[in-house]
Specification:
- Keywords: CBS domain, Repeat.
- Pfam families: CBS, TTHA0829-like_ACT.
- InterPro entries: CBS_dom, CBS_dom_sf, CBS_domain-containing.
- It comes from Thermus thermophilus (strain ATCC 27634 / DSM 579 / HB8).
- This is Acetoin utilization protein, acetoin dehydrogenase.
- The chain is built from seven helices and ten strands.
- The chain is of the alpha+beta class and 210 residues long.
- The protein is elongated.
- The strands form three sheets. Strands 1-6-5-4 form a four-stranded mixed sheet. A four-stranded antiparallel sheet has the order 8-9-7-10. Strands 2-3 form a two-stranded antiparallel sheet.
- Strand 5 and strand 6 form a beta hairpin.
- It starts with 7 loop residues before the first strand and ends with a strand.
- It has two domains: 128 residues, CBS-domain (Roll), CATH 3.10.580; 76 residues, Alpha-Beta Plaits, CATH 3.30.70.
Length: 210
């Protein structure tokens, strides 16, 4: 899976001189949480709803309404945006984007093709992909199995699944001498898969409906 397959394409952008109040209106109207900041066709910053809210005067301010409106009218995105911007390439694996967001503690990344902004990828997009990859909407059985950490163990385990079908499989943990796998099986005689696995000598750790 590549970033381009899950990103939001052609994101709404603002210019550095966009008033903060206009950026707030855009975020609220479009239901977004971040806006790339473009200048002369180049990505120069990123502004989030938190950045904009932090720029608003405190409720404890002694400024009059007229003074607050005057200051807010002059405040621009350039003064509150984050820079430099952490980005990811459109053809990067989705897991690279997930790792970048986890390491940098951020909720979204502008997506680039060279110097051109082509999209935005967010934590929500990564979660959508996670749900798809694990087949969470397909039902069936979710089975956790510990298999020996040796070549061929996965293929041997899979032979016990038919006539049911494996639609997703993921490594959940590395244990001494074993790998813990979580797989989802659907189809014919899916209820019999755990017993067939155990009869084949596999260590079934957990079974629950999809």
């Amino acid at each position: 899976m590549l970033v381009r397959d899950w990103m939001t394409k052609d994101p709404v952008v603002v210019a550095p001189d966009t008033p903060v109040l206009e950026a707030i209106r855009l975020l609220k109207e479009k239901g977004f949480r971040r806006l790339p900041v473009m200048e002369g066709g180049r990505l120069v910053g990123l502004v989030t709803d938190k950045d904009l809210k932090d720029a608003m005067p405190s409720k404890a301010t002694t400024l009059s309404v007229w003074e607050m409106n005057y200051l807010l009218a002059k405040l621009t995105v350039r003064e509150v945006m984050a820079r430099p911007v952490v980005t990811v390439e459109a053809d990067a694996p989705l897991e690279k984007a997930a790792l970048l967001m986890e390491e940098r503690k951020i909720g979204g990344l502008p997506v680039m093709e060279g110097e051109r902004l082509v999209g935005i990828i967010t934590v929500t997009d990564v979660l959508r992909a996670f749900i798809e990859v694990l087949g969470l909407k397909l039902g069936g059985l979710r089975i956790t199995v510990d298999i020996p950490d040796v070549p061929g163990a996965l293929a041997q385990m899979a032979q016990a699944v038919p006539p049911a079908n494996i639609v997703s499989i993921a490594t959940a943990a590395h244990l001494p001498g074993y790998q813990r796998l979580v797989m989802r099986v659907v189809g014919e005689d899916v209820e019999g898969v755990p017993k067939r696995l155990e009869a084949a000598g596999e260590r079934v750790v957990d079974v629950r409906p999809g």
